[in-house]
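User: My advisor, Dr. K., asked me to get a structural model of this assembly before our group meeting. I'm new to this, so sorry if the format is off. These are the inputs:
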Amino acid sequence: MDLQKFFEMGGYAVYVWTSYGLTALVLLWNWWAARRSEAEAQTAAKRRNELALERSS
Amino acid sequence: MSAVRTPTLAAARLVFQRDMTLAWRRWDEVAQPLIFYVVVTTMFPLATTPDLSALREIGGGVVWVAALLASLLALESLFRADVEDGTTEQWVLSGQPLGYLLLAKVAAHWVLTGLPLVIMSPIVGTGLGLPTSVWGVLMFSLLLGTGTLSILGGIGAALTVGVRRGSVLLSLLVLPLAMPLLIFGSRAVTMQMDGDSPAGPLQLLAAIFFMALSLGPLAMSAAIRISVEN
Amino acid sequence: MSWTWFHKLASPPHAYRILGTIAPWFGWASLALILLATWWGLVKAPADYQQGDGFRILYVHAPSAWMSMFTYVVMAVAAGVGLIWRIKLAHAAAAACAPIGASFTFLALATGSIWGKPMWGTWWVWDARLTSELLLLFLYLGYMALRASFDDPQRADRASAVLALVGVINVPIIHYSVEWWSTLHQPASVTKFDKPSIDLAMLIPLFIMIVGFQLYFGWAVSRRLRGEILRRERNANWLKEAA
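Assistant: The format is fine. Below is the predicted structure of the whole assembly, which you can bring to the meeting.
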């Protein structure tokens, strides 16, 4: 398989690779954002737990 | 001793009349959207070209956009005063079907803001080069469109009442929903101008209006209850 | 029939645990399928007769567009369930869907626009399909903006639920306007998406990518929903073990 031809995408290289690149970006963003959202909620919940424990002790 | 229950229609009429009376005392508030409407339509010839034959091409659209924006301006304060002084709570507690009362309020709002826009439209349209032949379609499409927008805006206003800078949020919520109205409304005018029958878009506008009329009060009551409950 | 399994599902601690278990399965499966579909679409699938290799954008564009619609419907259904039956978890699910759906909508618009440039000669055209997709983005943004404008989480949930439901009514209206819109302007160049007329060899990577995106959605919603659950269950006892 000709690697050069593959990257050229029959002349549409800019369009195809930009599209796939944007797709990768969006998927990566979703991956990062979802994990961050969950992690932030977890740390906040943990902190609340600790505060509650402190107050009760 | 049994309580006499007011018939719903009478209650709705009371709400309607109250709003009309209040508006009469503050007519400048009623005039503002109308003035905005005229000013905005004036901006287009200034920004693009004074050539009427060129303006005519987009005239239908411009009138419609201006009408939408002017209506939105008036919508933000639709429920504010009533929520603040507790009138809305009384409506919720009254045992009357909330949807009818809210619809009466929206109807009053439309008579005060939407209807003037409809009546003014031939004049602003002429300023944009629209021929007399489209006046009927222009007014009829705006009649349906502003009516629908009052209902949609009523839902948006009910959702955003009390939110800081609610007017921007309201526009953000209502304008996307109003896009079909814009598409069909301005299309009807342009088609009439080109000699085609505007029946298609007008029928769609009517369908959207009746859908808004039947489902809108439901959404509005839900939204009002949410806003009032806290 | 016993409904306890359903009630259990709606109970936050159980949901939190179950979502934590299934998320990795969704995640790895979606990664595998997306990579497979990417390879298949870029390498294995034959070039198009008219569009050459440019048509390969289809494999990211169509699944994004599909997911943008799918996510909105899921969001609206969840919002409706939350509103009618007052199930907090349903509201949380709707909130979790919104940013995911918005990002897919953005991607659909962007890839569509990029595809349009070489094929139609223009970055944008106001035909019904593109306009309705843009409208969908506005609906998502409005939903998220409305949510953010309330301090009270319960009011945020319920107000945005009403908005999501009202927006759903709009979407089929916009989609049916395709016929009217395209006859009023010049018809847009026909993008041949009629399934029977596409070669099967070109169709397979599309289906794989769609399934991959769906599973990815499942993963993202699971993780976000876990966060939403934690945020809402502020003082619950079960949190002490879970966190």
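One thing worth pointing out at the meeting: Chain A is about 90% helix and 0% strand.

User: Perfect, thanks a lot.
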